[in-house]
Design goal:
heterodimer; A: 342 residues; mainly alpha; MetI-like fold; two-stranded antiparallel sheet; 12 helices; B: 435 residues; 2 domains; 64% helix
Chain lengths: 342, 435
């Protein structure tokens, strides 16, 4: 039972003109203010740390760019001994490895996401999701060992086969080796961008798959049931409802994976043999990526070279940043991305 | 106009059966709706055994296609063409499987059915390839690395005075395990308060500055880990003149992990229902108490997952450690003095050396690292599960001072007994946790 306050008629009447509305303030007082300022302090310190890294890298790039100018982006060689330093070759190498990785990872991620979201029995779904997450948590050095020791011989055979039968396509050509020789030179077909791409693809596939699966699972069930009720087969339902709904997630997840593929280091260091040359022969031995270059050269670098390495890292960071930002925008703009954690 | 016959009631069943056929015959030209008659002598209805399930015929066609494909692939690779080896067999098997599936689908459906079946086979095949990759990765590492694990000294000794190529009964990876744990602890001490604190700031305080922080943090997740290592190497070691040490490695891992954990925690905190916050504030709790007793406990499973997955990522990263920690061969428990080793770095160095015994040791260390990540992963899964019997009421108990019945406040109204205060809500209150 609630007791309402009784109107006290004996109370002195207040003049209505003197009653002003209480001033409302959202400003925190007392303990709340302490909390708010404390939280703001933490946020500011994180801003300083993370933003400081970006600013520092940019600041370090200035002397390098002053010294080498635009030639830094067009020179292929990285030979500090002769003071010829450029990242044209390593940048294209980075893009090549990432492109190979995405060519392998994209279809696998899409198929796996579709399988988990639409084809797998409902009971197995949680386990499959956990397995994909587990793949994302496996350290990159382990994928490096897997790619470099277990897969590389097979990848070499496949490369030989591709050159033999599709060698007229420039991408599949391997210079300096005759595939029709009695004993082809097997060493020309390993330690290539293709081999590194396989290992990197295994690293980035789970990421793309997780984003895609999440948007697929958010497809409105009503629309799926409507398609099925109209007589669509399962593929008809997927192609008419699930894939259009998840388009933003597919593109965004792929780009997030691309961003990670661009920065992958250890697997590439373990697999490729360094070569500073712009080339599109992905099956041929030798390539180099920005991150592998940093890992290989930081130890014996002078101050100037270190600043050049930092500049290369900064360029890599900018590329990844653009790719990731685009991915986030695409996922968030899409119909399905409202609740997706991209 | 059609008049619907009234539905026969159970008691009138006999009357209806006697009456209705007559009515039907009397007006045959008049369309009407007829309700099925209850037949007391009919056998009980048998439920459909295969509702929604494929029939035996369909199952035969689905799996028979793949059996046929296996035979064809065997014929082609082993008998007709010189394509030895398991990989070629699997590739031709898959192609023939798609072909036979398509042909069999064409026999009982049109082009639409063919597409449906072929896509189904392709999707399943793609998922199997991924599963095979995961199994082969785990299996390969375990198969290569189980032998060093049989030696107890592998876990209890370090590599000081032991050559990398020496036999497996000498030396071990104790220094790498301890180093990894120390570096990870440093990284956790830095990132846990800062990362979750930033997430709290971004979600609970908000404002223009919080948006700026969120933008920068999201941008920094794009930072390649090697660049984080290079940053710490340049600033901490070259500019400040500090030695290569476990502390530097821990800082490098922190720089890499901080944006990841802050962002993941931000996502988790954002989905905490706003009405929980409002309820807590309406009860008079301060903002800090609301965060500490309501928001963080509600998001606890998600936060645990975010942190543990961040740790799993941090423990496996080689590139930041490679630049900053050096690589000692002896056990070093001082994070600030001398160089320190860690599991990924140990693996990396030994694999590059190429000596058979060193590589074997590296695989042993890789197995340990993999098991460590697996264990962290399982812990994350368990932590993500909501705790049983934890209701919102139990969690907000600390917020409200327990109300005591004293003589000074006589209980005149039964409606305001403490039964309605949050602290004593019935324990069966359904949990608000939706995860």
């Amino acid at each position: 039972m609630t007791i309402l306050p009784a109107h006290d008629t004996a109370a002195p009447r207040t003049d209505p003109a003197s009653v002003r509305p209480r001033a409302l303030s959202r400003k925190a007082t007392g303990a709340d203010a302490v909390f708010e300022h404390g939280a703001r302090l933490v946020g500011a310190s994180v801003l300083v740390v993370t933003g400081g890294v970006a600013l520092f890298l940019g600041w370090q790039s200035v002397p390098t760019l002053q010294r080498y100018g635009l030639g830094f982006f067009t020179t292929q060689e990285w030979s500090p001994e002769t003071d010829t330093i450029g990242i044209a070759a390593v940048l294209t190498g980075t893009l090549t490895v990432a492109a190979v990785a995405m060519v392998i990872a994209f279809p696998l991620a899409l198929l796996t996401a579709l399988f988990i979201a639409e084809y797998a029995p409902a009971r197995a779904r949680a386990t499959l999701v956990a397995l994909v997450d587990l793949m994302a948590a496996v350290p990159s050095i382990i994928y490096g060992l897997w790619g470099g020791r277990l897969i590389m011989p097979y990848a070499g055979e496949l490369a030989l086969f591709l050159q033999k039968h599709l060698g007229w396509i420039p991408v599949f050509d391997v210079r300096g080796s005759d595939p029709n020789a009695a004993v082809p030179d097997a060493t020309r077909y390993v330690a290539s961008a293709f081999c590194a791409g396989i290992a990197v693809s295994m690293m980035v596939m789970p990421m793309a798959c997780a984003v895609m699966r999440q948007v697929f699972s958010q497809t409105p069930p009503g629309e799926k049931e409507a398609a099925l009720a109209l007589g669509a087969t399962r593929w008809g339902m997927i192609s008419a409802v699930v894939l259009p709904f998840g388009r933003g997630g597919i593109i965004g997840g792929t780009m997030l994976a691309l961003g990670r593929a661009l920065g992958e280091t250890i697997a590439v260091v373990l697999i490729v043999s360094p070569a500073f040359e712009i080339k599109w022969n992905v099956l041929e031995i030798g390539t180099e990526t920005v991150s592998a270059l940093i890992a290989g050269r930081f130890g014996d670098a002078s101050t100037g070279q270190l600043s050049a390495l930092l500049t290369a890292g900064f360029v890599l960071f900018l590329i990844t940043l653009v790719v990731n930002t685009l991915a986030a925008i695409i996922v968030n703009r899409s119909r399905s991305g409202a609740g997706a954690e991209a | 106009m059609t008049t619907l016959p009234a539905p026969p009631r159970a008691s009138e069943a006999d009357a209806a059966t006697a009456h209705q056929p007559a009515a039907h015959q009397a007006g045959t030209h008049q369309p009407g709706t007829h309700l099925p008659q209850a037949d007391p002598d009919a056998p009980p209805a048998t439920p459909l055994a295969t509702l929604g399930r494929p029939t035996a015929d369909e199952l035969f066609r689905r799996y028979g296609a793949w059996v046929a494909a296996a035979g064809l692939a065997y014929l082609l690779t082993q008998q007709v063409l010189p394509l030895p080896g398991v990989p070629w067999f699997l590739i031709t098997f898959f192609c023939f499987g798609l072909l036979t599936t398509a042909v069999l689908a064409a026999t009982d459906g049109g082009w639409i059915e063919v597409k449906n079946r072929v896509v189904e086979a392709t999707v399943t095949g793609g998922a199997l390839v991924v599963g095979l990759a995961l199994v082969s990765t785990l299996g390969f590492i375990l198969l290569q690395g189980w032998r060093p694990l049989l030696h107890l000294n592998f876990f209890t000794q370090d590599m000081s005075g032991v050559g990398w190529a020496s036999e497996l009964d000498q030396g071990g990876i104790l220094h790498a395990i301890v180093g990894s744990l120390i570096e990870l602890s440093i990284a956790l001490v830095v990132t846990l308060p800062l990362g979750i604190g930033t997430a709290v700031f971004m979600t609970e305080v908000g404002g223009r500055f919080a948006r700026l922080v969120r933008t920068v943090v999201e941008a920094m997740t794009a930072l390649p880990s090697i660049v984080a290592g290079l940053f710490v190497y340049t600033v901490w070691i070259l500019t400040l003149g500090m030695p290569q040490s476990g502390l530097a490695a821990g800082l490098a891992i922190s720089v890499m992990m901080l944006p990841i954990i802050a962002r993941a925690a931000d996502v988790v905190l954002r989905v905490v229902p706003g009405n929980l916050r409002e309820a807590s504030l309406a009860l008079g709790a301060s903002r800090w108490k609301t965060v500490w007793h309501v928001v963080l406990p509600t998001a606890r499973p998600g936060l645990a997952t975010a942190v543990i997955l961040g740790v799993a990522r941090g423990v496996g990263e080689t590139s930041p450690v490679l630049l900053t920690s050096g690589a000692s061969d002896y056990l070093n428990v001082h994070p600030t003095q001398n160089t320190m080793n860690s599991l990924p770095l140990f693996i990396f160095k030994l694999v590059l050396s190429g000596e058979p015994n060193a590589v074997l040791r590296a695989y042993g260390a890789a197995t340990v690292l993999l098991l460590l990540v697996l264990a962290l992963f399982v812990v994350a899964r368990v932590a993500a599960r909501p705790r049983k019997g934890t209701s919102v009421a139990a969690r907000v108990r600390g917020l409200v001072r327990p109300r005591r019945r004293t003589a000074a406040t006589p209980d005149t109204t039964p409606g305001t007994t403490p039964a309605s205060t949050p602290g004593t809500t019935h324990p069966d209150t359904p949990s608000e946790e939706t995860r």
